[in-house]
Amino acid sequence: MLAGIITGRSNTTIAAKANVKRAEVTIMLQHLLQKSDLI
């Protein structure tokens, strides 16, 4: 979360065991690639 790749469900909830939607995975991959300077 500190790197800005993922965010929680709210300001106080992470929901680590919740299912992840395709759109959420896409956003995480985009953030990861941007932080790695690959895009």
Please explain how this structure is put together.
This protein is an all-alpha fold and about 40 residues long. The chain has one domain (about 1-39). It has one helix and no strands. It has one helix spanning about 20-35. The chain is flat.
Q: Which features would summarize this protein structure in a list?
A:
39 residues, mainly alpha, flat
Quick synopsis:
The chain is 36% helix and 0% strand. It is mostly helical. The chain starts with 21 loop residues before the first helix and ends with a helix.
Average pLDDT number: 79
Number of helix segments?
1
User: What percent strand?
Assistant: under 5%
Order of helices and strands: H
- Looking at the chains present, what oligomeric state does this protein adopt? single chain
Tertiary shape: flat
How far is the first residue's CA from the last residue's CA?
Answer: 20 Å
Percent of residues in helices comes to 25-40%
Give the helices and strands, then pairings.
Layout: H1 22-35
